[in-house]
Amino acid sequence: HILFSLKCSQIPSGENVRPLGTTHIIKAEPVDESSVKKMILTFEKRSYKNQELRIKFPDNPEKFMESELDLNDIIQEMHVIATMPDLYHLLVELNAVHSLLGLLTYSPKPDPHVAIAVVDLLQELTDIDTLHESEEGAEVLIDALLEGQVVALLVQNMERLDEQVKEEADGIYNTLAITENMAEFRPGLCTEAAQQGLMQWLLKRIKAKMPFDANKLYCSEILAILLQNNDNTRELLGEMDGIDVLLQQLSVFKRHNPSTAEEQEMMENLFDGLCSCLMLPTNRDRFLRGEGLQLMNLMLREKKMSRTSALKVLDHGMIGPEGADNCHKFVDILGLRTIFPLFMKTPKKMKKTGASEKEHEEHVCSIIASMLRNLKSQQRSRLLNKFTENDCEKVDRLMELHFKYLEAVQQADKRIEGEKHEMVRQGEILDDSMEDEFYLRRLDAGLFVLQLICYIMVEISNSGISQLQQRVHQILNLRGGSVKVVRHIMREYAESIGDGKSDEFKEAERKRIMDLVDNF
């Protein structure tokens, strides 16, 4: 285990020098509370001694070399504490956490080696499986780290590491692992971590002109984690021009597929991050101004691997009343010519990207539904005209999808009814949470897509274009469908609408949908 790769010129000649890359061999003692205490006290002493010598002889490495090797030895030994998370409280009580964090930015002339040794230790101490072994020990450790501004210190430390040096590149990887471990154990700290410089550092590293590597992949993963279900971090990314950074990084994949599985994973992470950001209304405008719609539209036309994710991004960008500007712009850039061929025929080549037929049809139907909801005047007419083209072939396809998903949902309903019957027979109570679970299962089986399809049906039937209304009803009658079923589906949809929206909006939207249904 080579400890340091120090420059030869720094190695003093003479006695009392231990060869680099060796550690004192220490007889393994049984690890218990008293041996951990002893270890921590040794660490404190050696840390203090090294600090003292570094301050005294800042330009004379041979004076503090020996103490540095001693300090490194004890940090290596402390890895054993990671096997006993129930003793983590000792690290806090004996002030070791504070001292370890001090070593991340320590000394007038920072040497990355000790800081990297500390990062390796913290990475092992915060290993997610270890944290779950002793929730109590984990809580105490994480609290102490956060109190010591751990993320800010880790970011400062990464700023001065040189990724051309393998050991330092590994140090960055392990630093990212610490942030991932902590975020998984306590998701609430994502906002704080992002604000302590992590978001800025990640964006800078993602757009750095460096060859793709494991660290860039990991950065994309941490970024996606920070943005998950978190409006604060989404806002922060928007303010830092992060939407532009994501679009620039993704634009590479408009005409080229990722060259490895790892690069594909990074692409998906960046797309996921972008979708998360678009949940925040203010970012929709940044996406519009950054020409995100044009990029996604091109990706849909190019038929590369990025197509599936581009569709998902468009769906996120156009949904709800906040998506109105994006809907209008999409029609202006001739997006209808791109989206309708994907509506008419689900691509066969989706297996590579791991997307399902249902997912594809859901996103396309959601985009069309959003446009029907949001478009006004001339753009709305252009959309409705699409449905009349070629003897209403788009309506025929819509009805084909209607019966496909209706059947899937009816089968799921049958299964669920059987389960409910069985539960009642066994004397189990069907509470609200069970009903919610059943509803989610129905949505997953295809009810959500069916709701979107029915919404499109009632919208185009209310458009004032009689041939659309006639065609919808003609096919319904022909295939033994029923207006009553469509109305029932739409009522259920109206009931569930607008989670997270104001009561005022919910009410208005429900009324709008029910008016459409009554006229159907």
TrEMBL record:
Beta-catenin-like protein 1 N-terminal domain ranges (all copies): 10-119
InterPro entries in the record: ARM-like (IPR011989), ARM-type_fold (IPR016024), CTNNBL1 (IPR039678), CTNNBL1_N (IPR013180)
This protein's record includes keyword Metal-binding: no
Location (main, coarse): nucleus
Gene3D superfamilies in the record: Leucine-rich Repeat Variant
Subcellular location: Nucleus
GO cellular component: spliceosomal complex
Transmembrane segments: none
Lineage top rank: taxon: Eukaryota
Keyword field: Coiled coil, Nucleus, Phosphoprotein, Repeat
Name of this chain's protein: Beta-catenin-like protein 1 N-terminal domain-containing protein
Gene (UniProt): CTNNBL1
